[in-house]
Amino acid sequence: MKILLIVLGSIRPPLAQAVREYEERAGRYWNLEVMELPAGAPGRKSDPDRVRDVEAGRIRERIPDDGDLWILTREGKGLSSEGWARALGRRALHGGRPLTLIVGGAFGFHEALLSRADRRISLGPVTLPHELARLVLAEQLYRAGTILRNEPYHKGGGR
Question: 62, 37 in Cβ contact below 8 A?
């Protein structure tokens, strides 16, 4: 199944190596494409509404028409690692339409993008910088693949 990961902003050290490692690992299980888009808006003053509007325009231009759209937002529904595996496994089993996952910028998402989403997912109740969110997401995509293939990486389930 093809997964397009759209992220606002690029990764800088010290997280760059870890992000690339987990995206590469996730690519063993999913046809993963990562697209980095510039974060923010031109100009010195960062008006949150303007930034969300500009970023939404950049994102909308890149969203494929033929798949599902999942947006990562702290207001979304949390998934356990097993939940990620079940959700992705069901999608792959039942047609495997392309999936677009979006990691947003500092001010969150424009309402037009949120209303377009097929699913809103949270990585937890805390606010994460986009670099950490991207790392956690890449690791969860990798972990979901290992769970679905019953490989030994995931040791969850115990108490």
Answer: yes
Tens digit of pLDDT for each residue in 122-136? 999 998 998 999 999
* 14: preceding bond cis by omega (within 30 degrees): yes
Token readout for 96 is: 């495997």
- Domains defined along the chain, listed by start: 2-148 (3.40.1280.10)
The beta-strand segments (E) located in the chain are 2-8, 31-37, 68-78, 99-103, 119-122
Phi and psi dihedrals of 108, rounded to 5? Answer: 80, -155
**pLDDT band at residue 154 using 50, 70 and 90 as cut-offs:** confident
Q: Contact, 8 vs 103, CB < 8 A?
A: yes
Question: Is 105 in contact with 133 (CB distance < 8 Å)?
Answer: no
SS3 category, 71 = strand
